[in-house]
Design brief:
The chain contains 12 helices and 12 strands. The protein is α+β, with helices and mostly antiparallel strands and 268 residues long. The protein has a single domain, classed as Spore Coat Polysaccharide Biosynthesis Protein SpsA, Chain A (Alpha-Beta Complex), CATH 3.90.550.10. Strand 1 and strand 2 form a beta hairpin.
Amino acid sequence: MLPLVDKPTIQYGVEEAVASGVSNLILVTGRGKNAIEDHFDVSAELETFLEARGKLELLEDVRKVSNLINVSYVRQGQPLGLGHAVLITQAVVGNETFAVVLADDVIDADPPALRQMIDVYEQLDGPVLAVERVPESDVASYGIVDIDPELLLPGVHRVRDLVEKPAPNEAPSNLAIIGRYILTPDIFAALEATDADHSGEIQLTNGLRRLLQSRPIYTCEIAGVRHDTGNKLGYLKAVVYFALRRPDLAEPFRAYLDSLDLTPASRT
Ligand code: G1P
């Protein structure tokens, strides 16, 4: 729920899904995350208040949020990993292809990242993982993919193997999974058969590795800019980036940044 400029980070992911043609959203939440449900819910009191005060522009903004999409919620009682979070949506997803968005990865892209991936899915008819090259020092923070060199479509390869958060000397490449997946319903059986790792979590990467034994999986390098808001520096960069992308803020904000001088002498 941390805002990037004036919207919670999660809303960027939701808007990307909507702009990509997704119409049903399942949010996996947990204890203490009620603010997320409230944010995407109809806020009757606030709407009445804004209407009475004649704040019609703000009213429209508030309605836009609750009208975005058809949202349902699944609660993950214990933090047992990303694979487990996906597995508990099975009853709601049913026997359909679906997308997973990890909203702390915020991607500015046109067409939206998820749309680029859906286009790949429609052509190759298999699961698609969004990937990006990362510095070697960062491979231990990601699922890392080994790909077949043959280029199938622009930015698209077949996965040869994948491993969750490898040590840098054991990583098969520096191609990292970023938080977008198009998954087919056979991932559920693969996740059910996947053991928890040493930290007690069921990893989606390990479920995908199992699924790879029975069908091809593809990678898609996203044309766009990704920010990892899950760490402090990444979050700060994202705030600055999205503020500079805003027509109403770009000019005064850039002038402010240019004028910043934090040397002690300038403060005396
Ligand atoms: C998760 C996945 C990892 C992926 C990453 C992308 O890790 O387990 O494979 O590369 O998201 O952000 P987490 O960031 O939850 O530790």
